Hints:
The protein is α+β, with helices and mostly antiparallel strands. The protein is built from eight helices and six strands, in the order E-E-E-E-H-H-E-E-H-H-H-H-H-H. It folds into two domains: 3-58, no CATH class; 61-101 and 120-293. The protein has helices at 60-76, 79-89, 124-150, 158-177, 186-206, 214-243, 249-272, 278-293, and strands at 3-7, 21-24, 40-44, 50-54, 94-105, 108-120.
Amino acid sequence: PDELTVNYDPFLEDDTNPQQNLLGFEYNWKAGLINNETIFALDFSRDGTTQTLNLVETGLWKGFMAMVRQGVWHIWIGVDHILFLLALILPSVVRRVRQVSEESVEGDQKLVGSKWYWQPVARFKPAFKYILKIVTFFTIAHTITLSLGALNIVTLPSRWVESIIALSIGLAAYHNIRPIFKGKDWIIAFVFGLFHGFGFASVLGELGFKGEYLSLSLFGFNLGVELGQVVIILLIFPVLYFMRKLKFYPKFMLWLSILLIIVSLYWLFERALEINLPVDDYIRNKGYKIAVYLGLR
């Protein structure tokens, strides 16, 4: 119906302690209310025990934008997703170069040894192309599994998915120290992006998503994830680009990668054994506060 008449009058007759009655939607896709517990639509008082709820002030656009906001919000509070992206883009502003050492022995050149070192990229374009390639493969991967998971075509145990997501951070970081796939960083982004997509799909279930307007919902949520991802990269990448020529950048990347490996192993241990360690709650609380401060919640 366009309108719904509601009569509700309990607790309003007490003169000494008058009460307030409120009506709210916990879930209304077109109204943009998803897993809602705080937005109230009607306020019943002693002089207004009968109220009319207008259901016309809703629409597909409003519901779609609500799903976009949910996608942005859930990648911003997904610290594991953010750290995986960070590990992937750390080497975007440098290139691994091999230095060969030779010496002359009676007029002949003799190879003594070689070592690898990081060299900053000379221009913005190659760094941007690297970012674009990594993000594209990560997006394709998690879009596929987000859709498969939300449609219940493929389901994996949450314990496995969350453990592999934790592991992905460590492997991406280890790749920055000792390359696993030389010149093919996109493989890590794509393979583990598949599991990150299953992680995003589980969020839709936690939202109380009922499955209506499925195409719009999946597109909106995924678009929100991408927008949140772009914001993360726009915040991190320029800083890395301007740092790339500093002498300490290779060591910075090394020690940050080691830190990411430690965090990865911590989460892997916690999730694989299904135990809750205190540091995890601390990180989540900090991530939540930052997101709130930035106005994303």
